[in-house]
Amino acid sequence: MGFRVAVVGATGNVGREMLNILAERDFPASEVIAIASRRSMGQIVDFGDKELKILALDTFDFKDIDVAFFAAGSSVSKEFAPKAAAAGAVVIDNSSLYRMDPDVPLVVPEVNAEDLKKFAKKNIVANPNCSTAQMLVALKPLHDVAKIKRIVVSTYQSVSGAGNAAMDELFRQTRAVFVNDNIEVENFSKQIAFNVIPHIDVFMDDGYTKEEWKLMAETHKMLDPDIKVSATAVRVPVFIGHAEAINIEFAKPISEDEAREALRNAPGCLVVDKREDGGYITPIDCVGDFATYVSRIRKDATLKNGLNIWVVSDNLRKGAALNAIQIAESMLNQGLLSAD
User: Fold this and answer.
1) Are 19 and 32 in contact (CB under 8 A)?
2) Is 90 exceeded by the pLDDT of residue 221?
3) C-alpha–C-alpha distance, residues 5 and 35, integer Å
4) Considering 143, 242, 269, 286, which one is annotated as catalytic?
5) Does the annotation mark 269 as catalytic?
6) What's 190's DSSP letter?
7) Which of 12, 46, 107, 187 makes the best surface tag, with the fewest CB within 10 Å?
8) Is the dihedral of CA 249, 252, 255, 256 positive or negative?
9) Out of 130, 143, 269, 286, which one is annotated catalytic?
């Protein structure tokens, strides 16, 4: 028997990717239902070689749904995720709403799949922030080998992380530069075309942004609360694909070769690390891929036990949609999901 699956926010970037990945990975669904706001009702979205008609969220009854993927933002999740969970659906939520809830597991399956056993308190599992997900896929195997004490991470995050409107803005601004039109800024604090912006999400009292705080807090919840984390999150004029430069301090020695070996053997990781022109992965190389790529593995001579790595992944996939589907697959493998 297959599962009845709902995708909430099916017209957005992440929702569409969820539908793509459910089809690509042949998730055992007897039915997949695409849901969005009332203004999108009746629109058509692709699901493999099929087309699905959008149903309206405000009138949808979740009572026969086994798994509900939410990809519509915190306000939607706040109102509708508890209703779906109370109706019996296992909710896998991509928003930030439940990530720090102690009764909701926050999971990257390659890192802490065992935490999924705690889902039953609220019938909800939280999907982490896109930049945290790919970072921890790369850090977990290294932490297992030499125990990480401290990381300093700088992110280079694509505009797709801010949604469809942000991608459209990058396109319009880029075109405007070439045809000498006025540059209109709507979704970012400054022009994004041909620029970088060290500001993602709101500023907090300590000077860090909420995006930077997420990297810190989510690392502590999923990997190790004792790891010291310092983050700088930067938006760059790239459509899809996040990159991260990560400096790592370990509790004990680890060589470059030991790090490469651990990463090559780790689930979800692919190492592309040749010290030559083009011997590394860039965001454009990873679009549409499932893997988290690691390149530029090298010693940090300023630390006793330090390494630098470069991590790249498709933020709409591993950073959001793919991780959500992998959570459902891991629950299925652990016997935590059942079809009514």
Assistant:
1) yes
2) yes
3) 11
4) 242
5) no
6) S
7) 46
8) negative
9) 130
